[in-house]
Amino acid sequence: MPTYHIWHADFCGLPQCCAPEQTVHTLVVRKIEQRLESGDGKLIGKVGEHPMKIRFAMFAVLLAATSILMTNARAQTPQKSATLTIAGHPGEAQLLQVNGKSYVEVEALARLTQGTLSFKANQTILTLPAAERETPAPRAAAGFSRAFTQAGIEEMSAIREWRRAIVNAVQTNTPLSEDWIAAQHSLAEKNLALAASAASTDDDRSASPMLSAEFNNMQSLSDLYLTLRKQAAAISPDTFHSGPLEDQILSCAQGFVSMTESRALQDQPACH
Fold first, then answer.
1. Residue 104: which residues within 8 A CB-CB, separation 6 or more?
2. Which residues partner with 117 through β-bridges?
3. Rounded to an integer, what distance in angstroms lies between the CA atom of residue 57 and that of residue 41?
4. What are the per-10-residue average pLDDT scores of the chain (272 residues)?
5. Phi, psi of 116 (to 5 degrees)
6. Of 93, 126, 159, which residue sits at a domain end?
7. In terms of domains, do 218 and 111 share one?
8. CA–CA separation, 27 and 34 (whole Å)
9. Are 182 and 190 in contact, with CB atoms under 8 Å apart?
10. Residues 207 and 161 in one domain
11. Residues 43 and 108 placed together within one structural domain of the fold
12. What is the residue range of 102's domain?
C-alpha cells in the first residue's frame, strides 16, 4: 500500500487553520486534491490502478489531519474563565486563563478603571484618571467666635436676672411664683443651647462647659429657694447673702465676661 506523509504545516498554512471541527474534512480533501492535481500524473495513474488502496490511504490521511487540527484547537481553547476586580473600582472584567496564563481585554480593563484608550503607531496607551486628592479639613480658627461670645453673654445675662430676682425676693420677703421661675429656667436653657450650637472654634468648645456649669449652679440655687419657700413663710436674708453657691455663680459670670472681652481662653475655677 502506498504511504502518503501529511505534515502539520500543510494544514496550518491554510487561512482556515483554526476552522471549526465540521470543516476539517473539507479542508483535508481540498488539500489532497491540490496535491493530486499538481502531481506528475503518476499518482493519478495509481488511482486507476489501485482505487481501493488510494481510498484507504486518503482515509488514513483524513484521520491524521483531523487529529492534528483538533489537538491544535484544544491547545488554543481557554482552559478556565474567571473575573478580574480592582479594589476601589466597581464592576468586574472577564479574565481568560490559557495555558496557565491570564488574559484580560484591554477595552474591559479601561472600562473597569474608567480609563481611556488611545492609539499611536503600533502602541496602545491606557490612561488612568487622576487620583482625587483629599481636601484637608479647614483648621479651626483660634480665639472666640463672635456668635459664641454673643450667645454666651446672653446666657450669663439671663442667669444674672434669675439670681437677682431670687435674692430680691428673699430680702424683701416677696415670694416668686413657680411659673416665673420656670420661665426663667426655660430662657436660660434656650440660651445655653444656642451658645453650644454657635461654638465653632477650639476656644468656643472649651468654654462651652463653663456655661453649662453656671446654668447647673443657678438651677441648684433656684431649687434651694423653692424648697425653703415651701418650708417657711419667710426666709432669712442671710441664707442667700454671700452664700458659697451664690458667690460661685457671681465669680463664674464675671470671669466668663472678662475672658470673652480679652478673647483669650482662661480657666475659670468658679465655672466648674
1. 84, 93, 94, 95, 96
2. 126
3. 17
4. 38 43 50 52 47 54 56 52 75 78 78 80 80 62 88 95 92 90 96 95 94 96 91 76 85 92 89 89
5. -130, 145
6. 126
7. no
8. 11
9. no
10. yes
11. no
12. 80-126
What local confidence, expressed as pLDDT, does residue 4 receive? 34
182 and 113 belong to one structural domain: no
11 exposure class (CB count in 10 Å sphere: 0-12, 13-18, 19+): buried
Q: Which of 199, 86, 87 is nearest to 149 (CA)?
A: 199
CA separation for the pair 111, 113 (Å, rounded): 6
Final residue in a domain of this structure, among 96, 126, 156: 126
* CA of residue 266 relative to chain centroid, distance: 40
CB of 93 closer than 8 Å to CB of 108: yes
d(CA 101, CA 225): 87
| pLDDT score at 22 | 46
Model pLDDT, residue 9: 39
Note whether 71 and 88 are same-domain residues: no
197, 97: one domain: no
Q: What is the pLDDT of residue 218?
A: 96
Cα Rg, the chain, nearest whole Å? 49
- Tell me the backbone φ, ψ of residue 104, rounded to 5 degrees: -140, 140
pLDDT at residue 134, rounded to an integer: 61
- Which of 105, 218, 200 has its CA nearest to residue 151? 200
